[in-house]
Amino acid sequence: MIGSFSDLDVSRLIVRDYFATLEQALESEVIVVGGGPSGLVAAYTLAEQGRKVVVMEKRMTPGGGIWGGGKGFNRVVLERNTAEILAEIGCQYAEADGYLVVSSVGFAASLIKKAVDSGVILLNLFALEDVYFDEKRAVGGVVVNDSAYKQTGLHVDPLTFRSKLVIDSTGHEAVVLNCLARRGIIALKGEDTMNAQLGEQGVVDGTREVYPGLIITGMACAQFHGTPRMGPIFGGMLLSGKKGARLATEKLSPCTPTSTQAR
Ligand code: 48F
Q1: What predicted TM-score, i.e. pTM, was given to this entire model?
Q2: Whole-angstrom Cα distance, residue 217 to residue 232?
Q3: Ligand 1: which atom is nearest the Cα of residue 236?
Q4: Structural domains of the chain in order of their starting residue, each with its CATH number
Q5: Residues with CB under 6 A from ligand 1
């Protein structure tokens, strides 16, 4: 027999818990925009170091381009040197012909679970509308809205969230970069045609701080540097996330107990 409960209690518990988290998210050390593979890896790596990290994802489900596998066939391939990261997130893989093959569904789910368990504040249905500049004109946060408002074209004013660093992990859309590009602050070369070998290396090499306060990971790097796109091979995304986290750590001041407690 299921216990007795009240519908109002259910609503109250959701509102209380969600809005307490939302208030925490207003000021953080790192905002990762886009919850694809590179963004989730950067986020959980930083959170595991005790950093206060917020991921904002415009869709209902984080995981980005992983879910669809290759042409809807739900498998993706990774380079062998990412086996350690797959083990870290608890994702099973098979070795074949010198590569690692995973279920795209299991891979996405493992990454999401790892991020949540590491203490990342995950805000889905949050769509980036603009960047926020701090007093030195460095990127110091984001301006976001509800994804549904953006889709329906309703005019609702957005909210501002502050952070010490922003990571653009929005993949092919390169949304944060485009906020700067449309104002002529930076220029994007646009990704080149498919070449997995060059594309994977280009994404890792291209993971950088490209403007004060803004680090880029994943396919946003290809949009910025003009390196090739690639198909459903994902090792570069994971390594880019790791590099993005390392660059962020180098920029941030040493971790204090408060940054962990604040979460
Ligand atoms: O595209 P995505 O998976 O980014 P990634 O980490 O990985 C790329 C690969 O998936 C794949 C590939 C590898 O072979 O080429 O494409 O570079 O994830 C980007 C995430 O950003 C979200 C989007 O929904 C996706 O989950 N996103 C895009 N625009 C916004 C956004 C926005 N305006 N606000 C918030 N999230």
Answers
A1: 0.96
A2: 17
A3: 13
A4: 31-251 (3.50.50.60)
A5: 33-39, 56-59, 64-66, 127-128, 169-173, 175, 218-219, 229-234, 237
